[in-house]
């Protein structure tokens, strides 16, 4: 029987991720000060999505949750983009990346007893997020916060994994699946 980590890497390959690595969670840098970028609200989701700050919890709290898992599957897609500043275009690509990540999780559910995903961007299950309508989240178990909310230092992560961070004419998205290797 294949070991869990081999199965995860094989699933990542089969789903078409461009890069995938399994590393120790302790190798990931979390920088609490990055939370100020969420507060600047360039993405427009601050206080509008249950998966985003402040509703998702303090940066240290998310870091603590991630560090309860000793291993991390880092997933990356690299996609050609016409205009990286075109929000609609990159949103679609990001959505595809996150769907691929959820497909991997779905396919590995029997092997993964406990896990914690960190996605490329906010939860997009409902449109708009029920938070904007003042309603409760209908899928609290399915929502996941983004790497920014976790305050992951993504450039350092890419360097550690020896995968690209910036790609000219392309957009690189990252997600992380924290898991126990048991
Ligand atoms: S599942 Fe829906 S309500 Fe819950 S965080 Fe995601 S978008 Fe918001």
From TrEMBL:
It comes from the Bacteria. This is DUF2284 domain-containing protein. It comes from Blautia argi. The lineage of its organism: Bacteria, Bacillati, Bacillota, Clostridia, Lachnospirales.
């Amino acid at each position: 029987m294949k070991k869990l980590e081999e199965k995860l890497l094989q699933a990542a390959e089969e789903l078409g991720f461009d890069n995938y690595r399994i590393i120790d969670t302790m190798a990931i840098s979390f920088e609490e000060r990055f939370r100020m970028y969420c507060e600047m609200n360039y993405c427009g989701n601050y206080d509008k999505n249950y998966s985003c700050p402040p509703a998702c919890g303090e940066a240290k709290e998310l870091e603590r949750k991630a560090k309860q898992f000793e291993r991390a599957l880092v997933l990356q897609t690299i996609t050609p983009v016409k205009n990286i500043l075109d929000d609609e275009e990159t949103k679609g690509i990001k959505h595809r990346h996150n769907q691929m990540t959820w497909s991997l999780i779905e396919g590995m559910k029997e092997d993964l007893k406990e896990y914690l995903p960190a996605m490329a961007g906010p939860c997009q299950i409902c449109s708009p997020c029920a938070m904007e309508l003042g309603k409760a989240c209908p899928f609290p178990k399915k929502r996941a916060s983004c790497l920014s909310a976790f305050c992951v230092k993504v450039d350092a992560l890419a360097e550690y994994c020896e995968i690209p961070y910036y790609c000219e004419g392309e957009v690189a998205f990252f997600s992380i699946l924290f898991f126990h290797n048991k």
